[in-house]
Amino acid sequence: MKILVFQHVAIEHPGSFRDTIKAQGHSLHQIELDEGEAIPPLHDYDVLLVMGGPMDVWEEEAHPWLAAEKAAIRAWVSAGKPYLGMCFGAQLLAEAMGGKVGLMKTAPEVGMSQVRQVGAAALFSGLPEQLTCFQWHGAEVCELPPGASLIATNAACRVQGFALGEHAYGLQFHAELTETTAQEWAALPEYAAALETVKGPGSLPLILAEVDAKIDDLQGVARRLILNFLQGATLQVSA
């Protein structure tokens, strides 16, 4: 399959998903929207993967390309084509399909956390009910789109994952981490500010140590999750 990737900053990319995608014989075509790259004709692609970013879904004045991205997502998902959004990509899915996104009522969620499966989503097949994951966000999905179902949650942020039908998924947490992801993201001013708000000044080494201690588990979840998504997408594309 040809997988189209929407990126919103160069360092938020498919990460550890890339190895599994390549091993399955699929191709990635990454578009850097924040750098002015145009969205290509959607009919040329089979799957849409939308990554995170330091901006918010309502900041169309500062980031005019957001309007076109939301329209593309709406058209894609409405056509029943496979979609997976991570963090900002999940929020864009919710906004594009009629849900609501806003700032978290509590502090931003940064660092290692646990989320709990709700129901039995095919995306989580073979994974434990409680998932260890990594977070870095200050906004959240406040209201699910019409017809969406909640598939993951925790106490800090109710909508940690949701599905629209069996083809479109949004995950608030990050499953795509590599060994260098947290260090790279900490260089972004917006993320550095959130880190200090939640963990305090000088807390980056703590975050890096937590990720290092859990990286094998995190990447094991990532492999299973992206395999589940790709298997479902393959069936949908070939139907």
TrEMBL record:
<dbReference type="Pfam" id="PF00117">
    <property type="entry name" value="GATase"/>
</dbReference>
<protein>
    <submittedName>
        <fullName>Amidotransferase</fullName>
    </submittedName>
</protein>
<dbReference type="InterPro" id="IPR044992">
    <property type="entry name" value="ChyE-like"/>
</dbReference>
<feature type="domain" description="Glutamine amidotransferase">
    <location>
        <begin position="39"/>
        <end position="182"/>
    </location>
</feature>
<dbReference type="InterPro" id="IPR029062">
    <property type="entry name" value="Class_I_gatase-like"/>
</dbReference>
<dbReference type="InterPro" id="IPR017926">
    <property type="entry name" value="GATASE"/>
</dbReference>
